[in-house]
Structure formats: C-alpha cells, structure tokens
Sequence to fold (129 residues):
Amino acid sequence: MNKLFEWSDDYCVGEKTIDSQHKYLFEKGNEISSISKDNVKRHIMDLYTYVAKHFTYEEKHMKSIGFPYVAEHARIHESIIEDLAKKSEAFDPTWENIIDFQVFILTWISDHIMIEDKKYFDYSKKLKR
Ligand SMILES: [Fe+2]
Ligand SMILES: [Fe+2]
Fold:
C-alpha cells in the first residue's frame, strides 16, 4: 500500500537513537492497514508499548542535555499515552476503525515530532554554538 507518511530527514531531531525510534514508529504506523484483522489488535498493542518505551528514552535524553521543559513535554507524552490506551484497549477491528486509528497515530507522530520534539533539538543546537 502507499505510505501515508513517509519518513524524511526533515523529521530528524539530532539524536541517532531517537531518530531511529521515530522512523520505526512511522513504519509500524504505515503497516497497520496491511495487517490482517485478526492480528491488528496485537500490532496496535505492540505499537503502544513501543511508544511508551520511546517516551521514557526521550525524556531521559532531554534531561541529559538540560532541556528546561522536560516536565511540560512529559505531560504531553502522558496525555498521548492515555489517548492511545483508550483507543487500543477498546479496539474493534473494523476496516473503518483501522483506517481511523492509522490516521490518528501517524498524524500524531508527525505533528508531535515536528512541533514538540523539535524544541529540544533547537535547544541542543544552541548548546553547541
Ligand atoms: Fe519523540
Ligand atoms: Fe516527544
């Protein structure tokens, strides 16, 4: 299938592991609509687990560079996790719900990276000057 969101270097935030985690999230998000209905819930739960791990890693990274808005960023992560938990736990794998979920997760990933994650990237660039 066509990818809804293609990874590009515009999404880079300057930390190798985080960039590869973001890339992986795009891949997993793009795969949702090509997974069989029987397996899609499992896929979504795996994605949820991965997102949670990614957030933990990212928060550690922000702390390590002394980014001053870690608490605010962590609160955004928390509300995403709550949304994701609600959506994935009660997931009914109709075709319409699968596509809805896919659009939700990919839009969220790209918006969050470009708006929120870019803030610590900008901060880390200032440190290097
Ligand atoms: Fe992120
Ligand atoms: Fe983030």
Q: What stands out?
A: The CA atoms of residues 80 and 86 lie 10 Å apart. The pocket of fe (ii) ion (ligand 1) is lined by residues 22, 54, 58, 113, 117 (CB under 6 Å). DSSP finds four helices and no strands in the chain.
